[in-house]
Specification:
With 269 residues, the protein is an alpha/beta fold. It is built from 8 helices and 10 strands.
Length: 269
């Protein structure tokens, strides 16, 4: 995989830190960065280095859409977390619902069922799990009306499947996880913060060793764009909790001020 885009000094430092991480006893690395800081470009260079070191890596994302986007940007096979950690070929019928008014599927006898996909039981191979859009990974129990995956807590299931922290490594194989995300993105539904991007949450909840880095420098190729400039201001306002200073003004090119009617017509088109 050839990379024509050169890394800036901060990105190079981050790649070196991650390479040191995969040789350390730490379990998780949190890589944070807003739009324009080159997280995907960094991942491409990281994959090259890991390949030269013959260190196995697996690309994942929380949703099918985010997996497809990462695949298109890296040209590397990317799966959803669900596809990787759950036994999708071992569907079970959960009969805990006793009447058709409860969540689930009602059959001809008016019995309600929920389809259940358990965690895979086989031991994972030694690898670095590189997970993009990690701000979307929740840890509140989520029992779907028709389908349930594992415990219903995606982050907990990922940690359990990976056998890191308190779960041990009975086969001697060792998994580490690189969580990548933007800390200013909306957290998972029902949660105040994104648990997969929280060192405190991962440490307290799962007893894992966590390190990380926050990308702040915008790549040269992305500098100068007014949309990116405004997005950066908004990100800084969120981090500083200064919500009374942010405003967006049109500059006649990338950002244009239009009437409400024109905005509606543009959105409909």
């Amino acid at each position: 995989m050839e990379n024509s885009i050169q890394l800036n000094d901060q990105q190079k430092e981050t790649v070196d830190l991650i390479i040191k991480f995969v040789s350390s006893s730490a379990d998780c690395f949190i890589l944070e960065g807003s739009a324009g800081t080159g997280k995907t470009t960094l991942v491409k260079h990281l994959l090259d280095k890991l390949d030269k070191l013959k260190h196995l890596s697996k690309l994942m994302a929380p949703t099918g859409r985010s997996a497809r986007i990462l695949n298109s940007k890296t040209n590397i096979s990317t799966k959803t977390i669900h596809a990787y950690i759950y036994a999708l070929d071992k569907i079970q019928v959960n009969d805990d619902a006793t009447n058709p008014d409860q969540p689930g599927y009602a059959d001809s006898n008016d019995s309600a069922h929920r389809f259940y996909f358990p965690l895979k039981q086989e031991e994972p191979f030694s690898a670095l799990y590189i997970i993009d859009e990690s701000s979307m990974i929740g840890d509140l129990e989520n029992k779907g009306d028709l389908v349930q995956f594992g415990s219903g807590k995606l982050l907990s299931d990922l940690i359990q499947y990976s056998r890191i922290g308190r779960y041990g490594h009975t086969s001697g194989e060792r998994v580490q996880i690189l969580f990548i995300g933007d800390p200013t993105q909306l957290p998972p539904v029902g949660e105040i913060n994104s648990p997969a991007l929280s060192k405190e949450y991962l440490t307290d909840e799962f007893n894992v060793v966590v390190t990380g880095f926050n990308l702040t420098k915008v790549m040269r190729q992305a500098e100068g764009g007014e949309i990116l400039n405004q997005a950066t201001k908004l990100r800084d306002s969120i981090i500083e909790k200064q919500f009374n200073r942010f405003s967006v003004e049109g500059n006649g090119s990338e950002i244009q001020e239009i009437s409400t009617e024109n905005a509606i017509n543009t959105a409909v088109e």
